[in-house]
Each structure stands twice: as structure tokens, then as C-alpha cells.
Design a protein that fits this description.
The chain has 13 helices and nine strands. The chain has 260 residues and is an alpha/beta fold.
């Protein structure tokens, strides 16, 4: 059967929170105010210092839901596309890029699944050459976000998405790999036969030691263009946004009991 390597994004592939990293360009384009920039900076500090626990993740969900309500979807996509290089490239872990390449050469699909919004996760996944990128999905009406979260890519939700992908793509999860830094991703790690803790928070580190899971500590954030051939990433990524969008639409629809 086919195999896959599932990657969390923040503090696993990226050295920072992908969502909060875009606070300044969002501010420059008038989507958020100074207070939100300060909140984002503080949240980034807390996230880097100790990770996010369940209560913080739920608070983040509510905050982000209220924040994006009314935003124009195309404007967000344009901002992310235009600022992706300056924001994301310097904070990609070289070790993660090398690991992705190892899995790719072994014939495994690369799946990125993150609680950040899909408009942020998909272009990053494309740049990394992922086969599928799944992020939190917010409902859209008339080209604007409503604030209603259709799917929160967090906790058990990640494991549900992984099982759905396994069914659709024929993955044997017992032979698949999963990488994450957070104890909130235990369902994701427990869903596969090869769980690996990356830069784990204290709780996940304790669990990994108790269960004899491998622990990897990444410490070399670099410019992605130094470690990935740009042409290869673009070629591989050309299908990820469309593929993820098509898969995501059907998958989100099933979760909501809607028609795709």
C-alpha cells in the first residue's frame, strides 16, 4: 500500500507560527490594527517559549474567527503570495527540508496539516513540494470570510483528516510517519505507525520518552531557496494548491454534511 509522511507546520517545519508571521503585512494592507499586531507578537512569543496548550488553541480559534470576519479572500491570498518569500523563507528548518526530501526519495507522499488558515498553508505546502496541504477552513460568502470555521485543523480534527486521506489515497497508516512539536497533536501522532516528536513541548517530550518515540530537535532555520531547488519546488508545488483545494472541498463538505 501507499505510504505518506504527515507534517505539522509551525515549530516542525517552520521556526515560527505561520499565521502570526503575516501580522505585519496584514497591518500594512489595512486588515488589522496596531493592537492586533501587538497581540500577534505576544502570541508568537508564548508559542515559541512554551507551545500552545488546549485552552490557548481554543482561544486562538475564537480570536482568529472574529479577526478575519469580513476580510476579502482574494486580498488575503494576494498578500500571502506577495510576502511569502520575505516572511517564510528565512524561518524554514533545514533539517525539515532534508527530512521531506528523504521521504520523497523513499516514495512517500508529503502531507502538511496545520491549524493555520488554508490560504497560508497551501502556498507554503506548494513551495515545499507537498502533495497535499490542509489548513483550517473558514466559510466564504460573496468573496469574504464569514468567520464560521468549517474545519479546525487541530487535535482530533487532524487525525480525522489523516484517516480520510488514507481512505481516499490508499495509505496504510501503520506504515506512515507523522511529525509534530505539540502535545495537542497526540491524535495525529497516534494515528500512524511511526510517530516522531520534533522540537517537542515538555508534555509531548515526556510522552515520547515514555512511549519510546523518536525525538528530533531542529535548530537551523534557513532561507528555503538555499536548500530546495526553486524549479523543483515550483514544479512539484504546481499541483498542490489545486489538488489540496479539490480534495479539501470534498473533505470539508463531507464533514459538514454539505454537498460538494
Amino acid at each position: 500500500m501507499a505510504q505518506a509522511a504527515f507534517f505539522d507546520l509551525d515549530k516542525t517545519i517552520l521556526a515560527k507560527s505561520s499565521s502570526f508571521a503575516f501580522a505585519r503585512p496584514f497591518y500594512r494592507e489595512g486588515l488589522i490594527g496596531r493592537t492586533d499586531v501587538v497581540k500577534s507578537a505576544y502570541a508568537q512569543f508564548v508559542f515559541l517559549a512554551s507551545g500552545a496548550d488546549h485552552d490557548q488553541m481554543e482561544s486562538m480559534r475564537d480570536y482568529m474567527s472574529a479577526l478575519v470576519t469580513g476580510w476579502e479572500v482574494e486580498k488575503v491570498k494576494t498578500i500571502v503570495d506577495e510576502t511569502l518569500d520575505e516572511i517564510v523563507d528565512p524561518m524554514v528548518y533545514e533539517e525539515a527540508v532534508e527530512l521531506i526530501d528523504e521521504h520523497r526519495r523513499a516514495g512517500r507522499d508529503i502531507i502538511i496539516i496545520s491549524s493555520s488558515g488554508t490560504e497560508v498553508v497551501e502556498p507554503i505546502g506548494a513551495r515545499l513540494g507537498a502533495d497535499v496541504a490542509i489548513g483550517t477552513q473558514v466559510a466564504i460568502e460573496d468573496g469574504r470570510y464569514t468567520g464560521d470555521i468549517l474545519f479546525y485543523a487541530y487535535g482530533p480534527g487532524k487525525a480525522d483528516a489523516m484517516r480520510s486521506l488514507a481512505e481516499e489515497r490508499g495509505y496504510d497508516l501503520s506504515e506512515c510517519y507523522a511529525y509534530s512539536d505539540s502535545s495537542t497533536d497526540l491524535p495525529m501522532l497516534e494515528a500512524v505507525g511511526h510517530p516522531i516528536a520534533v522540537n517537542p513541548d515538555s508534555s509531548l517530550r515526556a510522552t515520547a520518552l515514555e512511549r519510546d518515540w523518536p525525538i528530533r530537535d531542529f535548530a537551523r532555520p534557513v532561507d528555503m531557496s538555499r536548500t530546495i531547488e526553486r524549479k523543483q519546488a515550483v514544479a512539484a508545488g504546481a499541483g498542490v494548491a489545486l489538488g489540496a483545494a479539490a480534495l479539501g472541498l470534498a473533505w470539508y463538505a463531507r464533514r459538514r454534511g454539505l454537498r460538494a
